[in-house]
């Protein structure tokens, strides 16, 4: 429970982290991405294990430690960042000259963040 409290205590600091990946196109989208929601974390790559990572830049960063099945209150851009973490799936095909060509077939999701709602 102390880990959840540490995130709650630092929620304002987390909301001010820089947004990674695709940048918001306007102020309304940025406000939407910085809105805090409750999510349930699932580690699809290694079910049952936790995932620890640092997000931000050198001046403003935060270390997250999410446990499989745990519920967390984080901004939408943090959940979007985790959802965007994928592993490429490659296919090797002969190119007709005796060599093999590497082709990207698809992407496999590593994590899932399900938004939860109060009943």
The residue-averaged pLDDT reads: 89
The largest β sheet comes out as: 3 strands, antiparallel
The helix tally amounts to 4
Strand segment count: 7
Tell me the β content: 35-45%
- Whole-number total of structural domains: 1
* Unreliable segments of 5+ consecutive residues: none
Radius of gyration: 18 Å
Instruction: Tell me the span between the first and last alpha carbons.
Output: 22 Å
Helix content: 10-25%
Question: Which structural category do the helix and sheet elements fall into?
Answer: alpha+beta
Describe the strand arrangement of the main beta sheet, using strand numbers.
4-1-7
Shape descriptor reads elongated
SSE string, helices as H and strands as E: HHHEEEEHEEE
What is the topological layout?
Blueprint: H1 2-9, H2 11-15, H3 27-33, E1 36-43, E2 51-56, E3 61-66, E4 71-75, H4 76-83, E5 86-94, E6 100-109, E7 111-115
Antiparallel strand pairs: 1-4, 1-7, 2-3, 5-6
Describe the structure.
There is one protein chain. With 119 residues, this protein is of the alpha+beta class. The chain has one domain. Helix content is 24%, strand content 41%. The protein is built from four helices and seven strands, in the order αααββββαβββ. The protein has helices at 2-9, 11-15, 27-33, 76-83; strands spanning 36-43, 51-56, 61-66, 71-75, 86-94, 100-109, 111-115. A three-stranded antiparallel sheet has the order 4-1-7. Strands 2-3 form a two-stranded antiparallel sheet. The radius of gyration is 18 Å and the shape is elongated. 12% of the residues are buried. The model has no long low-confidence stretch (mean pLDDT 89).
